TrEMBL record:
Gene: ndk
Name this protein carries in UniProt: Nucleoside diphosphate kinase
Class of the enzyme per the UniProt entry, highest EC level: transferase
One annotated GO biological process: UTP biosynthetic process
Assigned keywords, A-Z: ATP-binding, Cytoplasm, Kinase, Magnesium, Metal-binding, Nucleotide metabolism, Nucleotide-binding, Phosphoprotein, Transferase
SUPFAM superfamilies: Nucleoside diphosphate kinase, NDK (SSF54919)
CDD domains xref list: NDPk_I
Keyword check for Kinase: yes
Length: 140
């Protein structure tokens, strides 16, 4: 399997509860390398642009408010099959459905406040990484 990069976000419910280190340990234990990382405060407009694909969904406004409510940690994870591996480590969107040991099973508070975002495919990973990071910030 090829080495890939994927975009991860540690969401406000997790940064608020000081869970960044515990979540990063899950990534590293799964063989994912954190090759770029920064803590930022999104505006609601920036959150809306990032999640534009969901703009027709009923939870869009709530999601954008939440993502702008407190700082997030945006990061690039690298590894063999990193996109699928990260989705596996994250667990299902709704923590009630997430497998034991996954980030969302252990830390998520609800289907909306579910601690992490991870890109779902190679094209979205490339777009999402470019949304937050310049080439100079990606040191490999
Ligand atoms: P994913 O994050 O597991 O890829 P998506 O379906 O792409 O899940 O949804 C994006 C984000 O939108 C979720 O992670 C969650 O924060 C939020 N979301 C999804 N479904 C709901 C819902 O039914 N109510 C509130 N927020 C939701």
């Amino acid at each position: 399997m090829a080495t890939e990069r994927t975009l991860s976000i540690i969401k406000p419910d997790a940064t608020r509860r000081n869970l960044t280190g515990k979540i990063n340990a899950k990534f590293e234990d799964a063989g994912l390398r954190i090759v770029a990382q920064k803590r930022i405060q999104l505006t609601k407009a920036q959150a809306g642009e990032f999640y534009a694909v969901h703009k027709e969904r009923p939870f869009y406004d709530e999601l954008c408010e939440f993502m702008a409510s407190e700082p997030v940690v945006v990061q690039v994870l690298e590894g063999e099959g990193a996109i699928a591996k990260n989705r596996e480590v994250m667990g299902a969107t709704n923590p009630k459905d997430a497998a034991a040991g996954t980030i969302r099973a252990e830390f998520a508070e609800s289907v909306g406040e579910n601690s992490v975002h991870g890109s779902d495919a190679a094209d979205t990973a490339a777009q999402e990484i470019a949304y937050f990071f310049s080439g100079l910030e990606l040191v490999g």
